[in-house]
Design a protein that fits this description.
The chain is of the alpha+beta class. Helices cover about 30% and strands about 25% of the residues. An eight-stranded mixed sheet has the order 6-5-14-15-16-13-20-17.
């Protein structure tokens, strides 16, 4: 009997590749008919890059992403709050990457088809429910052609995202996705390199901020690279999200850009960068309240289906990859079955649930709240506002909680150790 995987996103495909690596048969059911490189920029932390290297993608990541050199916080008047090296420059054994989410998904998808065969991913098939038994699971599937069928498996692993049907069955009384008032507008614009040319940059405050990082190499002919950017404003969540059916919709820049018109610094013209995007998309920033279990018999949640989180810490995709690898290690130790699923849950649930709530509380950018209180985000020299040691301790605490503290990660044994 096989491992049935719901969802052909980053979590599901990473698990399929892990199953292949450890010799466990699997099949992926993906609801879209034709996978395409959709989405926006994301960051892969070194803990996830380590796992992708162990899956054989060490060289290929450089073809779709930029190794991040710097992570920086900047105040409302363009002066640095904090800047630190990232990836190899920070002393990690693995890089951090800025990539386009869709390009990463397609890299994993092509690898699954190449390694597992063309029938390993059934597109146009959406998992709609399950029946867990003592020895396996029966999985209900919609074919998107109006037909319903079912398959038998040893376990069902659901990586079917924010609106997971499997999670809904496991937790029928769960509330709707939680919106805390923040709205993101996202785009990508060709522009000149900023700072190091591979910097993750956040400008502003907790209530209003701008994020940018490159997701392509510099074009040798134009000197430009594709700059992924995000504008974020916070509203009163008590009024509710005004367009509940539109979780991502295309909008005009005039929807939000007036709030950022004055954010033009000598080294970064934010209004010009935003206006240069061919398309801009609006997203409410949502997560889900943590649940007390990810496992129901022979069924398990991973990735966003288990723990969708605010993107402030760049953890979502990274944690999805780590989930897949930890579950694969549990399969090796306990066999494919309920014992492995329980071991996976015991290892990750409490810590990742705490990370979801930490990110809801602004994650690594929470230090901006302290700076806002002390100077309103405007200063000439940050040392006059907050001691460097205070910021350093805050950042170190977050890295430890998110699973990519340098010393701990560098010293950790491989997640998957083949016999």
């Amino acid at each position: 009997m096989t491992v049935v995987i719901a969802g052909g996103g980053i979590a599901g495909l990473s698990l399929a590749l892990t199953c292949h690596q450890i010799g466990e048969p699997c099949i992926v059911f993906e609801s879209v008919r034709e996978p395409a490189p959709l989405g926006v920029g994301i960051n892969l932390q070194p803990n996830a890059v380590r796992e992708l290297h162990d899956l054989g993608f060490e060289g290929e990541l450089d073809t779709i992403g930029i190794p991040t050199r710097e992570w920086a916080l900047v105040g409302r008047n363009g002066n640095d709050i904090w800047a630190e090296p990232r990836g190899l420059l920070a002393g990690y054994r693995w890089p951090q990457y800025s990539v386009h989410r869709g390009q990463l998904q397609m890299l994993l998808y092509r690898a699954v088809l190449d390694r597992l065969g063309p029938d390993a991913v059934r597109t146009g098939h959406r998992v709609i429910g399950y029946d867990s038994t003592p020895t396996g699971v029966t999985v209900g599937i919609d074919t998107r052609d109006g037909a319903t069928t079912s398959v038998e498996g040893r376990v069902l692993v659901a990586g079917d995202g924010l609106h997971s049907a499997v999670r809904q069955q496991m937790h029928p009384d769960q509330p709707s996705p939680h919106w805390g008032g923040a709205v993101l507008w996202r785009g990508a614009t060709p522009g000149p390199p900023i700072r190091s040319g591979a910097s993750f940059l956040l400008v502003g405050s907790l209530e209003q901020r701008f994020v940018t990082y490159p997701i392509s190499a510099v074009d040798p002919h134009t000197g430009m690279q594709l700059q992924n950017w995000i504008c974020e404003l916070t509203f009163d969540p008590g009024a509710g999200w005004t367009s509940p059916s539109d979780w991502n919709r295309r909008v005009d820049v005039d929807t939000f850009l007036p709030a950022f018109e004055s954010w033009d610094f000598e080294w970064l013209d934010i209004p010009a960068l935003v206006r240069g995007a061919p398309a801009v998309w609006e997203f409410p920033m949502v997560d889900r309240d943590p649940v007390d279990r990810w496992v129901d018999g022979n069924v398990c949640l991973i990735g966003d289906a288990a723990h969708v989180m605010y993107p402030v810490g760049s953890n979502g995709a990274s944690q999805a990859i780590v989930d897949a690898r930890v579950l694969g290690a549990a399969f090796l130790e306990h066999g494919v079955g309920a014992d492995a699923l329980e071991a996976f849950e015991n290892e990750l649930l409490d810590n990742v649930s705490a990370l979801v709530l930490r990110n809801r509380g602004h994650g690594p950018v929470g230090i901006l709240g302290t700076i806002d209180e002390r100077c309103g985000g405007v200063f000439d020299h940050i040392d006059d506002v907050i001691p460097r040691a205070e910021v350093e301790a805050f950042m170190a605490s977050y890295k430890q909680a998110a699973g990519f503290a340098i010393e701990s990660l560098n010293a950790a044994p491989p997640t998957i150790v083949l016999p």
